[in-house]
Amino acid sequence: KIIATADLSDEDKERRQAGASLRNTVVAAAGYVENEQSQTSQPVDANGAPDPKKPVETTSITFRIRVPTNRFDGLLKKISALGIVRDRSVGAQDVTAEVVDVDSRIKSSQASIARIQVLYDTAVTTADVAAIEGELSRRQADLESLLARPVHIRTICRPERRSG
User: What are the backbone angles phi and psi of residue 99, rounded to the nearest 5°?
Assistant: First the structure.
């Protein structure tokens, strides 16, 4: 499983609009913006001192995007067509081990919850119910954490299912 990444710098004067266009294009390609940074500057006067009469300007915005590798090249072409990219750096990260590990931990956690649920359903005393409920809640929280943490990795890395 490979995640393709790109760092893109925006040079459009209408930065907010350009950023929104870029984000929409990335999301349409089943990706996401992992990181976004903007730099601002205060215009200076003839002496090089900050000029309070002029508004602070956003000089650049840098985006780190992640998309499925099978859509990466097409996405870069679409982004280039927007005419907002000044600099570009492209890379890839192999996350196969992490995906396999997380999937395995999710399955194990689900099985553990199922076993605890059986105990909960057969508990007789209030003390047993309380103890099992606490353990069940802890394990469900652990599962939810696993499911939430790698959503971007599991979503980005899964091959598309083709109908037919």
Answer: -65, -45
From start to end of 15-135, where are the E strands? 32-41, 57-68, 85-94
Structure tokens at 39: 């730099």
First to last CA, the chain: 24
pLDDT in tens, 50-98: 887 877 766 667 778 888 888 888 888 888 887 777 777 777 767 677 7
- What is the per-residue pLDDT across 132-152, written as a single tens digit (0 to 9) for each? 999 999 999 999 888 876 444
DSSP element (H, E) containing 5 = strand 2-10
- Structure-token pair, residue 100: 């396999």
Question: Encoding tokens for residue 93?
Answer: 């990260």
The SS3 call for residue 55 is coil
